[in-house]
Amino acid sequence: MKISVYDSFPDCAKEIRKTVFTDEQGFQDEFDETDNEAAHFVMYDEDETPVATCRVFWNDTMNAYALGRLAVVKKYRGKNLGSTLMNAVETYVKENGGKDIVLHAQCQAAGFYKKSGFTEFGNIEEEQGCPHIWMKKSV
Question: How far apart are the C-alpha atoms of 52 and 20, rounded to whole Å?
């Protein structure tokens, strides 16, 4: 597996997110202005097929880097690709002088993030009808 980092929003990342968040999970407002400012990570399999993505950006309000829109193509789930992608984000954050990473996790995915060292904070909030919780990790 290979991971590439892009300063602009690559079409392959858009397609993965559309498939996972819009088609599978029913989110309507998947793309936003943050996509124009974020670094986008894309993981490719041995055939150079894009199989996972996420974005990371500086969040002034939280005074931390924010990880978001982590998505793995269905047939590649359960192979630790999400964890591998998060490790790459942690390295990126450290290299850019960051100390903390925050994310707004779907509550059903909070256990996945806890395994990677994230802890919950704040209250559960609805985002497009789906419960989310803020999580944080120091790197």
Answer: 10
